[in-house]
Amino acid sequence: MGTFNRLHLIRQIDLFTLRLFLSAVEEQQIQRAALRENIAASTATKRIQDLEDIAGVKLLERGPKGVVPSPAGAVLVHYARRIFENVEDMRSEISAFTEGMRGKVVVASARSIIAPFLARELGDYARDFPLVELAVREVENAQILEAVSRSDADIGVFAMAHELELGGVDVTPYRRDRLVAVVPKTHALGARETVTFADLLPERVIPVDAMLGAFRVAAKRLGKEFEPLFSVRSAGTAISLVQSGLGVTVQPECLVSHELFDDVSCIPLDEPWAVRSVHIATPRGRVLSPAAAALMKQLLERPGEQAPAPAQD
């Protein structure tokens, strides 16, 4: 054994070896300590020998009944236990930043955003912050901004549109996807690489309620009226009607499952408004609660195609 070198000990020692050393003292046998710490007995013996070399002093005395700490080993036992007590205290204090965060966060969004984007991320947040009460309100796009501006929701996630009033909210880009035409597999448009809204107007277009306004504006630009025979609330209902051959629809691409491709074709919609920019709204000028700020941070840090910043009028 060499002489004790404090700096060498600090640089070379690791917590697992210290834990193994304590287990050997408590079990009075290196083999049982190895079993307890789930490593091979030969590896355990080598680690403790290395620890003694690092310390420069014998730490365990071997005898017929097993191992006991040497006088120097007894000192190490004392301080090692204190180290692990401090590690546990540190873990508890750090975990309080997540496990201990409390409060309530209300999120308002639309079904076409919750399903492909938010559901998984809100689930992750709920697991990360189990003491936070998370409430989700499914509302139409325009109502999301109203809820946030009235502070009925802490965070709103919405699809940007020209007709929306943004005066009462702060807006942050979140995600982006595109709109596609969904037509029956045998439809004449199914072989096209792209379609325009003008191509779709002669067909029986099945809109979801949230997109009805955008379709009427697009039709008006073409000098036509848009008064559909069908009007449904969900993308799933619209797509099921298309599968039955009752018409065509326009949906965010992320909502069209690959399992449907035997029955329908998806064709990119060649329109300036066909790129759907999804944004996060928060009450204008208001500081978010710690729980809401943590959700906002998580949403913005998760990988995904980011939406462009909203255009300035």
Task: Write a brief structural summary.
This protein is of the alpha+beta class and 313 residues long. Helix content is 41%, strand content 19%. The protein is built from 11 helices and 9 strands.
What's the arrangement of secondary structure elements?
Elements: H1 6-12, H2 15-27, H3 30-36, H4 41-55, E1 60-63, E2 66-69, H5 71-95, E3 103-109, H6 111-128, E4 132-138, H7 141-149, E5 155-159, E6 169-184, H8 197-200, H9 212-221, H10 235-243, E7 249-252, E8 264-268, E9 275-283, H11 290-301
Parallel strand pairs: 3-4, 3-5
Antiparallel strand pairs: 1-2, 5-9, 6-7, 6-8, 6-9
Helix pairs in contact: 2-3, 2-4, 2-5, 3-4
InterPro entries: HTH-type_LysR_regulators (IPR050950), LysR_HTH_N (IPR000847), LysR_subst-bd (IPR005119), WH-like_DNA-bd_sf (IPR036388), WH_DNA-bd_sf (IPR036390)
Family: Belongs to the LysR transcriptional regulatory family.
Domain HTH lysR-type: 13-70
